[in-house]
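JOB MANIFEST
job_type = single_chain_structure
chain_count = 1
residues = 79
[input]
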Amino acid sequence: MNPQLKSMLDELIDRAREMLQKDGHLMPVAFIFHDGGFSIIGTPWRDNEEKEAAVVFLRGVARQKSAWAIAMLAEAWMA
């Protein structure tokens, strides 16, 4: 993995942990990395159909911006 990308992802994960502890929840967010920096896009969904629509939308944005990486950040729970 690109060291710069790994550093950015590590920072995003740390920030997400802080937000989850502070707010008690975390809205799914996508980070689209491109030559101009990165874009942050909130991707809330209520079901699998909305989740798939969000992924299709993100693919389009990534293509438009000639992205070289996409990271999605969401809560995960284990029972």
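[summary]
The helical segments are 3-23, 48-64.
The longest helix spans residues 3-23.
exit_status = 0
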